[in-house]
TrEMBL record:
Its cofactor is Mg(2+). The keyword ATP-binding applies. This is Selenoprotein O. GO terms for molecular function: ATP binding; metal ion binding; nucleotidyltransferase activity. Keywords: ATP-binding, Magnesium, Metal-binding, Nucleotide-binding, Nucleotidyltransferase, Signal, Transferase. The gene is LOC100699987.
Length: 585
C-alpha cells in the first residue's frame, strides 16, 4: 500500500506543481471590486478576506469617453518587421512577426453579453458605464478601430499533438494595440473571433457563443484563483450564423458568432520562436528574443552574453510553476500544444479545458482526445516536451557550451515541478514546516480520493472547513465529499496520521489552519455543467447565469449564498454525468 501511494503521489507530482507562497499572498489580496456590491457573502467568511484592492479606484480619473481611450502599436511596429504582402488572404508568410489584418465586423444586432468591471476599470482605466454604449459594442467586436490601433495577426508555428505543424498563426484573432495604464502596466488587447486573417487556413475566423462564454468565464475564474492567465474584458454576441461540428461527428449545426476582447501582457508563444528557427530566420529570432527580454524579462541584462540561457531557465521555472498551479485547482488545459503555451507562462487559449471533479489522474477534458495525450496527469510531462521544443528553437542562438547548460537546466524541470507541487499540496492540507512523511501523507490522501472517486475541489475545501471536533468524531454530516472519502477502508489510518501531524505544529491552532486552508482551497470552480447551463441560456440571449457565474467565481474562496442556492458546491447534478465537452470552437 505504501509503495503504491508513493508512486501515485509521484504520478501527480510528476505532473503538477506551484509556489504556495505566491498563492497564499494572492488569495489574501483577492479584490472583488469587480463586484463591490456583493453582500451575499456570509459575514464570517468575508471577514477572512479583506475586501480591499491594492489600488484605490479613483472614479474621477476613469475615462467616460471611449474617444479618449488610446492604444499604441508603435513599439511593436518599430521593433519587429511586418509582412510585406498586403491583403487578408490565406498564404505562407515569411520574414516577419505580424501581418496587417483588418477585423471583419460581426453581423448585428450585437449584444453585450458580459463585461468585467475589474478589467475595464482596473486595467483599462475606463468607467464601466462605457461598456453600455453602442461605440463599445463596435470597438470590442471589430466593427470599429480604437484610436491608435493597427490591427495585426501574429505569425507563429507549433508542435500540435506531438508533431511539427508548420505555420499556424492567429487565424481568428486580431491584436489591436498596447494600452499603458495608470498603474504603469502595459497590456496587449486582442479580439478573438473577429474574422479571417492570412493565417486562417481553412477556418472561418469566427468563434461561437459556446466557446466564447467558456473563455470569458474561465480566464476570469483562473485569475481569481490566483493562477497566471490572460484576462477577458468583454463578450459580445451577434446574430451571425457560424457553422460548427461540435463533436467532430459530422453533425454540423448553425451557431452564433461571438467576440471576446481579451488581454495579456504578451501573446507570444513558444511557437512564435519555433517558426523563426524552423525557417532559418535566425536574425529575426534574435530580434524577437531581444524584444521579449527587454519588454518582459527586465531583470535580464541585455548585455549579458548568457541572456538567452537565463531567459530559458526562467521559462523552464515558470512553466513548471504554472502547471503546478493548474494541478492545485484541478485544471486540465486540454490542448497543450507549443502554440498554446505562453512564453510568459500564463494560461492562454481556453479551448476544451476542464476542471477535474472526481479525482482521477487520467481525467481528459477533450472527449475526442482518445489517447489522453493531454490528460490532467500528463500535463507536467507535456510541459517538459514543450520546453524541449523551445530549447530546439533556441539552439541557433546558443553556443555549444550554452546548449549543454540548457540541457542541464531542462533536467532540473522535474525537480522544480515536484518541489512546487509538494509545497502546494502541503499548503492545501494546512501543513507547516517540513516532515519527512509529508509526501506519503499527500500521496495516501490522493490514492484514497482516487479509489473513492472523491470530488477534488470539495474534498480539499471540506477538509479546510471541518472543525477539530468534527474531525476527531469523524462527523461529516453535510460534507458530501469528505463523507465519500471516509468510506475508504484506510481512511481512519490516514486521519490519525493527519491529526498527529497537525498536532505537532507549534504555534498553530485549528482555527488558523482552517483560515489558511480556506485561502488556498476554493469552494467554487467552473465545473463543466455550470458553464453548460450558462451557455444554454446565453444562446437564448439570457445572460443572467453568465453574470452570476462571473460574479461568484470572482470570489472563489468565499462562501456565497447565491452560489450555495445554485448548488455550485453541491454534488454535481445527475445530468452533468452525461455531458460531453464542447470541443470545436
Ligand atoms: C483622482 O484623479 C483626478 C484626475 O486625475 C485627480 O485630480 C485627483 O487628485 C485624484 N484623486 C485622488 C484621491 O487620488
Ligand atoms: C530556476 O530555479 C532554480 C531552482 O529553484 C534556480 O536555481 C534558478 O536560479 C532559477 N532560474 C532562474 C532564471 O530564476
Ligand atoms: C490551440 O492550438 C490549436 C492548435 O494547436 C489551435 O487549433 C487552437 O485554436 C488553439 N486553441 C485555442 C483555444 O486557441
Ligand atoms: C481534441 O482531441 C482531438 C484528438 O486528439 C483533436 O483532434 C482535437 O483537435 C482536440 N480538440 C481541440 C479543440 O483541441
Ligand atoms: C455533526 O456536526 C454537525 C455540524 O456540521 C452538528 O450539527 C452535529 O450536531 C454533529 N453531530 C454529532 C453526532 O456530533
Amino acid at each position: 500500500m505504501w509503495s503504491t501511494c508513493t508512486a501515485l503521489v509521484f504520478a501527480l507530482v510528476a505532473a503538477s506543481s506551484f509556489t504556495s507562497v505566491y498563492v497564499l499572498e494572492f488569495c489574501q489580496n483577492i479584490s472583488p471590486e469587480c463586484h463591490s456590491d456583493d453582500n451575499t457573502a456570509s459575514n464570517s467568511q468575508s471577514s477572512l478576506h479583506t475586501v480591499k484592492s491594492k489600488w484605490t479606484l479613483n472614479a474621477s480619473s476613469l475615462m467616460h469617453d471611449l474617444n479618449q481611450f488610446r492604444v499604441s502599436c508603435k513599439k511593436l511596429l518599430e521593433a519587429l518587421p511586418i509582412d510585406k504582402v498586403d491583403g487578408n488572404f490565406v498564404r505562407t508568410v515569411k520574414n516577419c512577426i505580424f501581418s496587417k489584418s483588418i477585423p471583419t465586423p460581426l453581423k448585428g444586432p450585437l449584444r453585450l453579453a458580459a463585461a468585467c468591471k475589474d478589467v475595464i476599470e482596473g486595467i483599462l482605466d475606463l468607467d464601466a458605464s462605457v461598456t453600455r454604449s453602442g461605440d463599445f459594442l463596435h470597438y470590442a467586436s471589430g466593427g470599429r478601430l480604437l484610436p491608435g490601433s493597427v490591427p495585426l495577426a501574429h505569425r507563429y508555428g507549433g508542435h500540435q499533438f506531438g508533431y511539427w505543424a508548420g505555420q499556424l498563426g492567429d487565424g481568428r484573432a486580431h491584436f489591436l494595440g498596447q494600452y499603458s495604464n495608470k498603474k504603469g502596466e502595459v497590456w496587449e488587447l486582442q479580439l478573438k473571433g473577429s474574422g479571417k486573417t492570412p493565417y486562417s487556413r481553412s477556418g472561418d475566423g469566427r468563434a461561437v457563443i459556446r466557446s466564447s462564454v467558456r473563455e470569458f468565464l474561465c480566464s476570469e475564474a483562473m485569475h481569481f484563483l490566483g493562477v497566471p492567465t490572460s484576462r477577458a474584458a468583454s463578450l459580445i454576441v451577434s446574430e451571425e450564423p457560424v457553422l460548427r461540428d461540435q463533436f467532430y461527428n459530422g453533425n454540423v449545426k448553425a451557431e452564433r458568432g461571438a467576440v471576446v476582447l481579451r488581454l495579456a501582457k504578451s501573446w507570444f508563444r513558444i511557437g512564435s520562436l519555433e517558426i523563426l528557427s524552423q525557417s532559418g530566420e535566425i536574425d529575426l529570432l534574435r530580434k524577437l528574443l531581444n524584444f521579449v527580454i527587454d519588454e518582459h524579462f527586465p531583470f535580464i541584462n541585455p548585455d549579458n552574453p548568457e541572456k538567452y540561457l537565463v531567459f530559458f531557465s526562467t521559462v523552464v521555472n515558470e512553466t513548471a510553476d504554472l502547471i503546478a498551479q493548474w494541478m492545485s485547482v484541478g485544471f486540465a488545459h486540454g490542448v497543450c500544444n507549443t502554440d498554446n503555451f505562453s512564453i510568459l507562462s500564463i494560461t492562454i487559449d481556453y479551448g476544451p479545458f476542464g476542471f477535474m471533479e472526481s479525482y482521477n489522474p487520467n481525467f481528459i477534458p477533450n472527449t475526442s482526445d482518445d489517447e489522453g495525450r493531454y490528460s490532467i496527469g500528463a500535463q507536467a510531462n507535456i510541459g517538459l516536451f514543450n520546453l524541449e521544443k523551445l530549447l530546439v528553437a533556441l539552439i541557433p542562438v546558443l553556443t555549444q557550451t550554452q546548449q549543454k547548460q540548457a540541457k542541464i537546466i531542462l533536467k532540473g524541470y522535474a525537480n522544480i515541478y515536484q518541489m512546487r507541487v509538494h509545497q502546494i499540496f502541503k499548503a492545501k492540507l494546512g501543513l507547516l514546516g517540513e516532515d519527512e512523511d509529508d509526501n506519503d501523507l499527500i500521496a495516501f490522501l490522493l490514492k484514497m480520493m482516487e479509489d473513492t472517486e472523491s470530488d477534488f475541489t470539495m474534498t480539499f475545501r471540506e477538509l479546510s472547513e471541518v472543525s477539530a471536533n468534527q474531525l476527531l468524531n469523524r462527523n461529516f454530516t453535510q460534507m458530501w465529499a469528505l463523507d465519500d472519502l471516509s468510506h475508504h477502508k484506510h481512511f481512519s489510518d490516514w486521519l490519525n496520521k493527519y491529526l498527529f501531524r497537525l498536532s505537532r505544529q507549534q504555534d498553530d491552532s485549528h482555527l488558523d489552519r482552517q483560515h489558511r486552508m480556506k485561502n488556498v482551497n476554493p469552494r467554487y470552480v467552473l465545473r463543466n455543467w455550470m458553464a453548460e447551463s450558462a451557455i444554454r441560456k446565453a444562446e437564448r440571449n439570457d445572460f443572467s447565469e453568465v453574470e452570476l457565474l462571473h460574479h461568484i467565481l470572482s470570489s472563489p474562496f468565499v462562501t456565497q449564498e447565491t452560489a450555495e442556492e445554485a448548488g455550485y458546491a453541491a454534488r454535481p447534478p445527475q445530468w452533468a454525468r452525461r455531458l460531453k465537452v464542447s470541443c470545436s470552437s
